[in-house]
Amino acid sequence: MIYLTRRADFSASHYYxxxxxxPEENARVFGKCANLNGHGHNYTLEVTVKGDxxxxxxxxxxxxxxxxxMEREVIGAMDHRHLNKEVPExxxxxxxxxxxxxVIWNRLEPRLKIAxxxxxxxxxxxxxxxxxxxxx
Amino acid sequence: MIYLTRRADFSASHYYxxxxxxPEENARVFGKCANLNGHGHNYTLEVTVKGDxxxxxxxxxxxxxxxxxMEREVIGAMDHRHLNKEVPExxxxxxxxxxxxxVIWNRLEPRLKIAxxxxxxxxxxxxxxxxxxxxx
Amino acid sequence: MIYLTRRADFSASHYYxxxxxxPEENARVFGKCANLNGHGHNYTLEVTVKGDxxxxxxxxxxxxxxxxxMEREVIGAMDHRHLNKEVPExxxxxxxxxxxxxVIWNRLEPRLKIAxxxxxxxxxxxxxxxxxxxxx
Amino acid sequence: MIYLTRRADFSASHYYxxxxxxPEENARVFGKCANLNGHGHNYTLEVTVKGDxxxxxxxxxxxxxxxxxMEREVIGAMDHRHLNKEVPExxxxxxxxxxxxxVIWNRLEPRLKIAxxxxxxxxxxxxxxxxxxxxx
Amino acid sequence: MIYLTRRADFSASHYYxxxxxxPEENARVFGKCANLNGHGHNYTLEVTVKGDxxxxxxxxxxxxxxxxxMEREVIGAMDHRHLNKEVPExxxxxxxxxxxxxVIWNRLEPRLKIAxxxxxxxxxxxxxxxxxxxxx
Amino acid sequence: MIYLTRRADFSASHYYxxxxxxPEENARVFGKCANLNGHGHNYTLEVTVKGDxxxxxxxxxxxxxxxxxMEREVIGAMDHRHLNKEVPExxxxxxxxxxxxxVIWNRLEPRLKIAxxxxxxxxxxxxxxxxxxxxx
Lengths: 136, 136, 136, 136, 136, 136
Prior knowledge:
29% helix, homohexamer, Tetrahydropterin Synthase, Chain A, five-stranded mixed beta sheet, 5 strands
């Protein structure tokens, strides 16, 4: 059993807003992130898959396939986008780092072949990241 | 003569749009950056000052003063903001990395005391940065 | 279940010395770290908490609270300090990276609300770090 | 129980080639890595050991011993080498990041004293790494 | 006048060998780099151009053009290649970091339009890099 | 003319204190750095030399010689040391990043052969560094 991790970057905008909160609550809970003009980040995504090493290739997963999947489901959909306005899952879900990790897991997990998804890590910045392992 | 450099980070949104261009021109020239929903980055700012070392302190500049100036003129004004909508200089100026370096120079240079401003470097991402030395 | 990690930095001095060892033993076991004049590091602390995502905020933990706790219990107590001389836990405990991770766990774990502490990681340098999960 | 991790770097060449594959299959499966002239990387190795903290030293493992072991078994054997031609394990094994992690585990695990090997991580580049925990 | 820098990475093999030297001289002068099996690196290239900011675009250079040029002249020609065997300039020139910076300058400088090339920086590793400004 | 830069790291303690200042002045001017127990950093040193490329080696300077010089004059003298107490230059000079860059220049410049010293850069941390070019 080997765990293989691939990183990729994307840049996106977002803001934090709960329509059920009063303006004061949004400001208090979300601080500077409540600014509805939005702000943005260079996100780093780490996708970790696990499986056995194929004896004929030395690979646990074909990296080209993994890269294509990450490109189609995440980078192509989120890079240079406004997460609240352009990524459907965030229509009614606040795009925190935690929720971003879950959304990306849900996009990748059903489409992975051979190897299994082990972890999705999303860095919002060097000093803040969230990990999701698909656990309830 | 010593050159001292201080880094600081801020996160902001922006888009690239020239109202004198047709929609097709904006799309062709600015590519994914033309998306009017905006996208964002974790910017890194490096401010370099130069001067002689004060014999009584060993400092070329009081770092607390420099930090206060950078905080007030740049981080406080741009962090968690939309550059096009909330930073006045970008009302009619495209917020490219190049222009951001010039705008920050113009904010810092007249307010620096004792040491002189030598360079403003702005990283939009690890693989792209602009340097401005105040040269015409 | 989501795991959220926050990084913070602090700079401190320390030395390694066991009063039960002879001077020769201290020198042999601890090498350059046995120098009683002390030396120092830029430490990086990573605190990982785990819990469920709150549906109204998208947060597993309020980052402002976590930052305040890390600031009060670790950064405020250890930054620009001499670990052996100024942090009470190291009065009779050698401030290795391993023990630093345990000491920080013991400071944070009883004071965390809602989310649970999962891991404390301490980097003494880029090429050396210790992880503690609270396991006996 | 504490986990301690030590990093080290080495630079090496390799190529990917399965003699049971046709030239076309090698090109299709391995892409640019199939070039028999070889190419290379600055690899980063992270070795994580686990154990109890020794009360007299504050160490889970003597770092000098760990460094000596890593130097002898990995850095000395692989740095500035061609993995396919000069590291015996890769005579009939494709030197992918996955297999490199397993080979390094097998070199280190039987020779570690006191602490136990927990994980071998090998970075081929910043955006690709493999983890091996010794699990079948 | 603004300076804009773009980074890109490539992985390649090389060795150092002067056919006019005796085997002993090659070994003494080039150390581990003299191994004719070759070894490799993840190189990082930084290309800095300088010029005025175009008022209609905010750019000193069209980044897509610069990226295309770097891709064609450097990455496409050197990534996953053996520098001594596959890059013509190194047929009779030792592929040190110094010479690599000069070779890349000579490939880029005549093909840059509008902005002028200011500096080529090549990192062989994080702790070693060469800068060339085109100065005799 | 090529510029070659070599990095190296060292860990050291220091404090800032001017005996001509009152205790209040020391506290006000130097803040947390005035703590006489000392604190420490992982310093990163970058030494840049310049010269012509030797046609027989492809080197501007023999890296082994440069490494030996840096090791003897800087790393061996400052690593795991208390700068105020163990580095003679700082007996009456405050060990700021600025002064450290000058002291290291003065140790290296007279001992460099063939290539000339161009710049000494000292990082006290990722977000603070000083450059000295030997200019009065």
